[in-house]
Batch of 2 targets.
Target 1
Amino acid sequence: MDVVSLRRFFHQHAEVGFTEFLTTSKIIDVLRSLDYKVIYGKDIMEAEKRRGMPSEWQIEQAYCRAATADWIEPSVLEAMKGGYTGVVGILEGTCPGPIVAFRFDIDALPVKESEDPDHLPQTLGFRSVHEGNMHACGHDAHVAIGLSFAERMASRNFCGVLKLIFQPAEEGVRGAYPMVAKGILDDVDKLFCLHLGLGAPLGYVYGGSANWLNVTKYSAQYYGIAAHSGQSPELGRNSLLGAATSLLNIHAISRFGSSDTRINVGLMEGGTAANIVPSYAKMLLETRASSEEVNRELERRVRNILKHSADMHDLNCEIEIMGRAFSIQCDEELVRLVMETARDIAGVNYVHDFYQASAAEDACYMTEHVQKRGGQATYMIIGTDIAAAHHNERFDIDEAALPIAVDLLSQVAARTLTERC
Ligand SMILES: [Zn+2]
Ligand SMILES: [Zn+2]
């Protein structure tokens, strides 16, 4: 199984969070062909703990799209109906030992991929065929690495149990929590998570990471009253004005001397026509902070602004939290283990301890859960040169990072899946 071809397959079939039907089906196929036990559907996800779900229409659309692929077994797809995507592969070694898990996120982003002739996926013919969905963060590579790594381990030449967690909906920090709630991480002794790139060039490996930001994702909806904008505008209540007022004021929240912070209103939409006072508006936004306390304070201020902007314009406002994540604490012992292993991997030139993340990741729910139960966890970064920033429509990785990552994970697994002393 060629890791580059796998990556290109997943890149070409990009699916956003909780709609990864085709992606999950392919992962299940490969894992089954390698004799892994696979669990998926409602067996890996607590239904009520899912947050920030796409609309039923979006889920159905993606489901029907996947159903047209004749290689997918209908019963597999059926088990995922309603957005129960993702899969866990389990392989038992030939002797008793620890349970070691590796986590790979599998979702794409709602980005329309570039058609520029110098964008390599376009030139080489593996641009996303799902218009408006794009692997602009490198999770296509994560899946491919996970499957090639699965193949390397398939000989079962180890002690203990290998657990491969293919997690949906990382973007928006949504998919990890329902998997944790279902108990997927309950028996894990050691957990390794990873990300490619994030500013680390090809040849770099960080054994761990720090300075992850706390993040809160919100959806805000304004409800007003529609009216004729010429004849009787005074009878209307303009929802877009409420949204616009709050957008400017949310971005005007003060910076904090005590913490790094970020604020972004990433979407604002509403209204239907030029001659109708808009009765509905929607916003998607987020706050981030290095301090949990400061992020809570940002949350309080955002709610205040959303509510008072609604009051100013006589509107109703509904606020929903779509996702939350907190900082990840890596265990030094695992960070050192990854560093020592990385030094012997061909293609790795620089090995460091802690990558300063300044981003957010819902792997935090998994790492914290494992650590609270006495296990250890780390979140490593594997370098790759990138063509444009993460989440940009021209994002692309250097595929030379893929075999490096597979070698690294295989060696990390060999060092950890050993007899208990
Ligand atoms: Zn991302
Ligand atoms: Zn990512």
Note: The first strand starts at residue 37 and ends at 40.
Target 2
Amino acid sequence: MAIHCANLGHGIGLRAAHFKELAERPVPCQWFEATSENYMGTRGEALAHLLKFRREVPIVLHGVALGIGNTDPLSRRYLHDLKALIGQVQPAWVSDHLAWTGVNGENSHDLLPLPRTQESLRHVCRRVARVQDSLGRQILLENPSTYAEFSGEQIPEWEFLSAVADRADCGILLDINNVYVNAYNHGFDPLTYLNGIDPLRVGQIHLAGYTECGTHLLDTHAHPVSQPVWDLYQSFSARHPEVSTLIEWDDKIPPLDSLLAQMHRAQAVQRGAWRCVSRASAIMPCPAASVHL
Ligand SMILES: [Fe+2]
């Protein structure tokens, strides 16, 4: 089964730091991704900007606080506010992360790794079904970056992600930077990951930059996309060149033109015009740097 997401082309994350400049020029990208929680339940200037841009290009909504892997009940208030925002924005699609975010009512404000077991697979799939029923639409789930693994895990990450998409009939937001970060931190081949994902389930791609921390890579979204991630993007695009792609940059946000330069490079790579310096097959193996819980 495929996820039905139109190919919107290439976009950037909509950030308040760029509102003013974006408002003064023609929209320089094909679409924006907006962080859902920044607009849910609000009526302020940021929402006004979002709705203005929505009149010009498609918007997709990307959440960080759904808590699809949590054990607490799904928040009715959260789903209500998200559904109301969806009604206002009419996004091309809605996404969040395959992660858990808190327990017993406490929010960690982080995207925490799920134990990749049959039990948690069933748990997540039940919750995806409830969310999709509540919103009346399919969602996409993103593979998060992780820095720890649970002992006794039964399922490789790419198989777990694929199984959630297949069983819950949702889409995948494939963050290729997160694939590379996890491959480095946990010591697997990122091409095995990409080749293990059904591209027809992938509705969107994220590209971002990480920070090298010596023993591990940290997914900071504070740097340009790295060469190994460009190589992996080229490899995936060679098999499936029709996936909407977004440049994520959330910390030390650069001038708009620097962000757009990354987006234009992604366009060139996806068209096959970009000559990657290194071969993707030469990236791995990477040392394992993760912690086993
Ligand atoms: Fe991402």
Note: The longest helix spans residues 118-135.
